[in-house]
Amino acid sequence: MFDLFGATPTSAGVIVTPYSAMTCAPVACAVRSISEPAGSLPLHIYKRLPDGGKEKATNHPLYKLLHDAPNGFAPAALFRTQLMADALLQPHGGFAQIVRVDGGKAAELIRLDPRTTPVAVDDSEIEPIYKVNGREIAAADLIHIPSPAYDQRKGLVGEGREAIALALVLERHASRLFGNGARPSGVLSLKGNVTVDTLTTAKAAWQAAHSGANSGGTAVLPSDASWQAMTFNSVDSQFLEMRTYAVAEIARLFRVPLHMLMQVDRAQPRSIESIGQEFLSQALLPRLKAFEQELELKLLTPEERDQYCIEFNVDGFARADLLTRAQAMSTAVSSRVLNPNEARQMGFGLPAYAGGEIFENPNTSSAHKGGKLNGNDNNQEEAA
Description:
This protein is an alpha+beta fold. It is 42% helix and 14% strand. It has a 3-stranded antiparallel beta sheet. It is elongated, with a radius of gyration of 30 Å. 23% of the residues are buried. The model is unreliable at 378-384 (pLDDT under 50).
């Protein structure tokens, strides 16, 4: 029953749910490190070309639905961010309903909030059965971004609840510690024959005067009382290392590099750039690919899948680095992979100019004044 309602107690003594997990800073950072790029990267529908290339199918009815806004109240970036966060946190993943009109055309995509519109999944058969509020919904009308967990019924948070619980317990312990002025507890001793009521009254008076915001002040004790503060032991001295380990465990759970959780490993010999590429290839791209294929499966007909594809443009990661973006575009133009107009549009969003559609290396002799790129003949230039 505990597993059924997502309330399985952990060895640390706390219950971990998708919502309590997001109160843990490392978990929230890991989820946002994956979900926010999924929302910010451009998502396009492309038309496959006979030569093996592809071009944006801006005239396709799905283009604005995927790129601009899936419905009338949520922009595309917010929709994809929330749906990816659901996939990382919720059992079975994230869900969005497809509203179809005119014989099956997708008109809207509406995210199903797991708090208000939970989706019940019956996976006892080969093909899962989906129900919302007791009403069955066809799988073709539901976008399902699965959880990366091995056990879909538990989800990633359910499988890693022990690691998350450890981080939560350590955070709560730190809060209580600093709530008491970052001082460990001590022993208040009273001499002579002391009744239970006297002990209770003395303890309440001491805590009222010297705990919380009043901690650290000068203690005034009667002549028959003494206070002995307890010192930190070896376990307390390792508290910081334990918190570091808890963050590393969560990074392993979500496959996010430590520096993405704002914690730099000093023993890391690789550069931040190489670790960022590792994050893109191992943590983000698998989730984006699952997203893309689910959209293609549910939004495109079998005939359209031979002509169109839906893909995220991961080149958007280079937008934050002007020098890297400029160097990449320059290399692509020099190697004649892109022409100048394509590079201007792809890398900088600039309009095309006359003559910029020529595939020619600007670093060769044909690019200088009087060369082919300027429409003149080199021999005439030399004769002049």
